[in-house]
Amino acid sequence: MKLTLKIWRQDGPSQKGGLAAYPMDDVSPDMSFLEVMDMLNEQLIARGERPIAFDHDCREGICGSCGFMISGEAHGPVKLTTTCQLFMRHFRDGDTIIAEPFRSRAFPIIKDLVVDRSALDKIVQAGGFISARTGSAPDANAMLIPKDKADRAMDAAACIGCGACVAVCPNGSAMLFTAAKIGHLGLLPQGQPERRQRALRMVNKMDELGFGACSNHGECEAVCPKGISIDFIACMNRDYMRASATETMEPVKRV
Amino acid sequence: MELNAKIPAGPMETKWEKHQFNVKLVNPANRRKYKVIVVGSGLAGGSAAATLGQLGYDVSCFCYQDSARRAHSIAAQGGINAAKNYQNDNDSVFRLFHDTIKGGDFRSREANVYRLAQVSAAVIDQCVALGVPFAREYGGCLANRSFGGAQVSRTFYARGQTGQQLLLGAYSALSVQVALGQVKMYPRHEMLELVVTDGHARGIVVRNMVTGEITSHAADAVVLGTGGYSNAYCLSTNAKGCNATAIWRAHRKGALFANPCFTQIHPTCIPAAGEHQSKLTLMSESLRNDGRIWVPKQAGDRRNAWDIPESDRDYYLERKYPSYGNLAPRDISSRAAKQVCDEGRGVGPGGRGVYLDFAEAIGRLGESVIRERYGNLFEMYEQITGENSYKQPMRIYPAMHYVMGGLWVDYNLMSNIDGLYVIGEANFSDHGANRLGASALMQGLADGYFILPCTIGDYLARVSPSDRLKTDHAAFRQAEQDVKDRTSRLLSADGTRTVDSFHRELGALLWNNCGMERNEKGLREAMAKIPLLREEFWRNVKVPGSAADFNQSLEKAGRVADFMELAELIVYDALDRDESCGAHFREEHQTADGEAARDDARFSFVSAWEFKGIGQRPALHKEPLVFEYLQLTQRSYK
B587: which DSSP letter? Predict the structure, then answer.
């Protein structure tokens, strides 16, 4: 296949960026998108040009490192797929493909396609956990969890934290990411003691970090490589409302 | 050098409990005065950093990824073992211990493995408490599946994403400690040097991967949980960033490297599609519960899988190993696949593949049950190959996956450098010459949640925080200078070949000469070629960009430079170990029916290598392996 890649190049956070075009020959339909990027980088280095910076690691769709906008869609045109698992057989000979970073106020650009997503870690640090000190756990079967509940919790827990939901949201909201964690832990009996504080802490932190609110566009669900349902946002809103009515937010502290 | 594994005396069943009583304790009020560095945030590093934070130590945790949650443990699919006997199928601590020692072909330490089996149950409890959504039965109890090398069902799982869920559990525990200020997290930081003075680990030198800044960090103890070195082989199932730099830098500073040639090839990976292949993708071993492995009986049979009648198929694992069948251990299954492909019976492009067929299970259980069990794996397979495995068999081939070798540690998980601890895949301790499926997650979390947090106190109680070096100490200044010199050497070579091209050549050399089967001639050939390749690398590598910047080519160059040195050690060890055991299969040593022939009289020891300089023969130290509870037998899975 022959393709033209148009890729966002930006030297650093405060520099101006722009698209640069790279014609590519000899692309095999069995190559992944990132393997085409590898090939391009080898060519750029050989020509004495600066290779394209992009985040990637496991290349099997689970670590959440990779991800950029591919011709306007987060992770590209194939549903339920991360950028690293996108194969060239989904494109046509002669296509022009545009790659841009995940853009959002809370995701500053580091270089080219690399963005800083540490805001997502901060949301989890605010309350996305069950405080269970190592060694304090009862026998694993002491707590029975109905299969459908466990399965539903797993549906939410499958989030890989790639940030695609934020990048495509017109409001730059991290609601799907946050709701997935609140939904996962809130469905489990172990998650109940901190359930309300969790909702307050995570949602408030999300606002504080500059993420927008949800206005039910549903873009997030549509691009989520793990198919996290937008229903979890409704669950989160319920948790948040209930918590707001009954409790005030407390900071995370030691006993 | 006398290697003292410090295995506690007394009966196996009570060693760990007695040891927990005998170790020195650090008073809770004093713990905050101690600084501990944890490098790596995977199952081992993440759980250790979280637990050390809970105990009250002042912890700094470093990882090269942009978030602690992305460590490569996340990619583990199939499950985690524990001796719970929830299935009432005769499992026990002793059976898990037995299976692990036997699976490792009697090349691991009894005391360590017994402790691992003992701790395994608490690991599951802890994960559930943290909210890990393990698979459940309808009554609400935890479900189990079977894995290779075991005849009981002791593997706990969360769909095909067990590693992800366990890691997110550890990451959430870590996040609490970060929120409390007990752990300071340094993502996008890579450890490039270990600082040692007077035989004690004093801290590390790291590079900020965004700004290029080189900084020193001092501590009272350093813990390495940086994973394995499979990427020395270039194509492996590891993440692209996985590297040996932390352990290799420690090795160069005196830490012994144990059993480097014990490298595991995983039998069920998606075959390479071409020259462009950048990594190999694992298909969980759990698939072998329901998938049957076969190749055509006749070499050169090019018919489509569905056109080949039963009578023309060879279910070679079921034929050769009737009692374990498709669940034979990894080393045995991998070698068997290679053999049938060498006979010309392989399938798919290039003939390097065997079928993993679910037709029988789908017929017996229905497609929905198979979808429930392995749906995400089937999807992943289809994404990569474009083939639907509900309709046609998967094609699989072995790939480099995991390393049993790693830095030598004693029973306390401390290396021979005082205050340097090594946990998870980065150490050598528990899996002998072959790891059983679902045991890596068990070991990583056992080390991080339970073992290290106990044993590290014993060391810390003997040192004083007032003796901690300042980062302006000459030893730190020197280490920083070494890092900068090395970086500028890489950048200034300005040659004609990219880092990737060197990495591919090194990987191919190791795979062909020190892969699934090894012989003296091939190993000697690799031994001759590696130094030449390394010499060319330093002379002719082309690394663009600068050191004071986000520079992924530079990161890669540093890692490959270390693989170039490590590769030679792997080959030294493979050559020196003139026997076959587990994943280390020397063609010269096999039984009449082609199984690994151990030589217990000569090789019942751990090979611990001491660095003597680049290109110099490393010095071998031996830790004898003594088996008091299990009898050394020829492994049989027939």
Answer: T
Query: What is the Cα–Cα distance from B208 to B188, expressed in whole angstroms?
Result: 6
Indicate the residue of A32, A129, A153 with minimum beta-carbon distance to B175: A129
Considering only residues 3 to 32 of chain A, which have any Cβ-Cβ distance to chain B shorter than 8 Å? Answer: 12, 28, 30-32
Count of Cβ atoms closer than 10 Å to residue B617 Cβ:
10
pLDDT at B537 over 80: yes
Q: How far apart are CA B220 and CA B60, in angstroms?
A: 11
According to the model, what pLDDT value does residue A166 have? 98
Rounded to whole angstroms, how far apart are CA atoms A192 and A143?
A: 13
Q: State the alpha helices, DSSP H only, in B330-465.
A: 330-342, 359-365, 367-385, 439-445, 452-460
CA dihedral angle for residue B193, residue B197, residue B201, residue B207, rounded to 10 degrees: -20
E-strand ranges in B79-224 read: 80-81, 155-156, 183-186, 189-197, 200-208, 214-218, 221-224
Q: Domains in chain B, please, with CATH?
A: 14-74+163-264+403-467 (3.50.50.60), 265-401 (3.90.700.10)
CB-based contacts of B334-343 (< 8 A; 24+ apart in sequence) = B334/B265, B334/B266, B334/B267, B334/B398, B334/B516, B334/B583, B335/B516, B335/B517, B335/B585, B337/B267, B337/B293, B337/B396, B337/B397, B337/B398, B338/B398, B338/B516, B338/B517, B339/B594, B340/B295, B340/B314, B340/B316, B341/B295, B341/B397, B343/B299
- Among the listed residues A189, A188, A182, A231, the one whose alpha carbon sits nearest the alpha carbon of residue A204: A182
Whether the Cβ atoms of residue B236 and residue B504 lie closer than 8 Å to each other? no
Mean pLDDT by 10 residues, chain A (255 residues): 98 96 96 97 96 97 97 97 97 98 97 98 98 97 97 98 98 98 98 98 97 96 98 98 97 87
- Do the Cβ atoms of A147 and B498 come within 8 Å? no
Between residues B375 and B165, the one the model is more confident about: B165
The pLDDT of residue B274: 86
Is there a contact between A147 and B178 if contact means CB atoms under 8 Å apart?
A: no
Q: If pLDDT is split at 50, 70 and 90, which confidence band does B462 have?
A: very high
Position B2 pLDDT exceeds 90: no
By C-alpha distance, the chain A residue nearest B445 is A134
Instruction: Say yes or no for a CB contact (<8 Å) between B86 and A141.
Output: yes
- B220 vs B36: CA distance, rounded Å: 6
| pLDDT tier, B99 (very low <50, low <70, confident <90, very high otherwise) | very high
Please state, in angstroms and rounded to a whole number, the distance separating the CA atoms of residues B500 and B498.
5
Backbone phi, then psi, for A31, in 5-degree steps?
-85, 150
Tens-digit pLDDT profile for residues A67-101: 999 999 999 999 999 999 999 999 999 999 999 99
Mean pLDDT of B101-117: 97
Residue from the list B161, B172, B501 with its beta carbon closest to the beta carbon of A129: B172
Looking at residue B275, its pLDDT comes to 86
Q: If DSSP codes are grouped into helix, strand and coil, which group holds residue B50? A: helix
CB B118 within 8 A of CB B16: yes
In chain A, what are the domains? 3-111 (3.10.20.30), 117-246 (1.10.1060.10)
Regarding pTM above 0.95, the answer is yes
Rounded Cα–Cα distance for residues B390 and B319 (Å):
24
Query: CB–CB of B426/B395 below 8 Å?
Result: no
Could you tell me which chain A residue has the CA closest to the CA of B75?
Answer: A62
What is the Cα–Cα distance from A20 to A8, expressed in whole angstroms?
6
Query: Rounded to 5 degrees, what are φ and ψ at A122?
Result: -65, -35
pLDDT on residue B360: 96
Assess whether pLDDT exceeds 80 at residue B522.
yes
- Between CA B435 and CA A196 the distance in angstroms is 43
pLDDT of B130? 98
Question: Smallest Cβ distance to B136: which of A48, A150, A254?
Answer: A150
